[in-house]
């Protein structure tokens, strides 16, 4: 089952469970708050650990790919040349920013709008997303970087094949030619 469908199923299941939790009881609400904070501390701790492991490995293997085009732009995506270390650090940084944004949104929903159910749901979803994170799978779970975990990572899609950067030599050569033609102009 693909990750997007799993997220929907887990969200719907967590909503049904959350309906049965008496959030109006202050003691239970505090336990849910503690659970949410604990899950976020675990998530951020694992991401920081992944960053530490990436820096420790210091894999300087060159990684070339043509970035996927932005759907809002007529630009066809450019050639990216980086190292495995830098790529993994940038992917982990994206995951950390998403976690920070989620905490900020939950703070707004819970503290300002007084919603309580999302605390429970986001604690579960955060842990599920942590397990699905590709840098975590490679650097913490020890899975080999092949198949879906091959760099550059392809973005999962609910509606078909995964979209992402192009790594075939024809695409890279074409992008290098475009760069060469721009430099000559």
Set down the secondary structure blueprint.
Elements (H helix, E strand, L loop, with lengths): L2 H17 L6 H32 L4 E5 L12 E5 H29 L4 H16 L1 H6 L29 H16 L1
Antiparallel strand pairs: 1-2
Helix pairs in contact: 1-4, 2-3, 2-4, 3-4
Give the structure's gist in a few sentences.
The protein has 185 residues and is mostly helical. The chain contains six helices and two strands; from the N terminus they run ααββαααα. Helices cover 63% and strands 5% of the residues.
Explain what the structure shows.
- The protein has 185 residues and is mainly α.
- Helices cover 63% and strands 5% of the residues.
- The chain has six helices and two strands; from the N terminus they run H-H-E-E-H-H-H-H.
- It has a two-stranded antiparallel ribbon with strand order 1-2.
- Helix 2 runs antiparallel to helix 3 (84-112), helix 2 packs parallel to helix 4 (117-132) and helix 3 packs antiparallel against helix 4.
- 15% of the residues are buried.
